[in-house]
Write a structure and sequence with these properties.
single chain; 211 residues; alpha/beta; four-stranded mixed β-sheet
């Protein structure tokens, strides 16, 4: 099932050891400082965690009818839009096509595509919301898992894969982050609170205003 929300990545694709850890390292002998460089795909770590896989399996079972309805409608809309797109492409290739005719076809296609996208988005809500809740619960521990993996591997800097051009001697600690996540988040709930919105998984359900 396609993911609808992405877990927060580290700023600029680079993770540094926390300030407190840096302060301790500065006071320690030079040999104790973590200077290794590694790569970690945090999104891959999240979706490969045991808690996420178990939760997704539960969601796919619980919302099987809704997922099937979405997939059926998605296929129908794709079959509807494909000939319209082909028609526009053929009109664009024909120098004799009046601009007004082409513009009208393009505008109609774009309007239909927007409506189709909105319809599909509504159909995903029943199962996308639980998935987002699961990802947020696990994502709240991703930084802690990353730091633990960095400490275990004696790594001082972690780069996101997309930020890497070439790093000689770097290792990939994605699986180490998965191991840490499995320990930190053995399971995740697939039932968000009634008033839950993304970003609230770690907040009290009814926190008093001003606190």
């Amino acid at each position: 099932m396609k993911s609808f929300l992405k877990t927060a990545a580290l700023a600029a694709g680079i993770a540094l050891v926390p300030a407190a850890a840096n302060a301790q390292a500065a006071a320690a002998p030079a040999a104790a400082i973590n200077t290794g460089v590694a790569v970690a795909n945090l999104e891959a770590a999240l979706v490969n965690s045991a808690a996420y896989k178990a939760a997704i399996a539960q969601i796919q079972t619980t919302y099987k009818a809704q997922i099937t309805a979405f997939q059926t409608r998605q296929t129908a809309l794709q079959n509807e839009m494909t000939p319209l797109r082909t028609e526009i492409e053929n009109l664009q290739k024909n120098p004799a096509t009046p601009k007004a005719t082409l513009d009208a076809k393009v505008n109609a296609f774009q309007s239909r595509a927007q409506n189709a996208q909105a319809e599909l988005q509504r159909l995903t809500l029943p199962f996308a919301r639980p998935e987002a809740y699961v990802k947020e619960q696990i994502g709240n521990k991703i930084e802690q898992a990353l730091k633990a993996a960095m400490s275990a591997k004696k790594v001082g800097v972690v780069l996101a894969p997309e930020a890497v051009v070439a790093v000689q001697g770097a290792s990939d600690i994605t699986l180490d982050v998965v191991t840490q996540l499995n320990a930190l988040v053995p399971s995740a709930s697939v039932t968000p609170p009634a008033n839950w919105q993304p970003g609230q998984a770690d907040q009290p359900a009814a926190a008093p205003a001003g606190r």
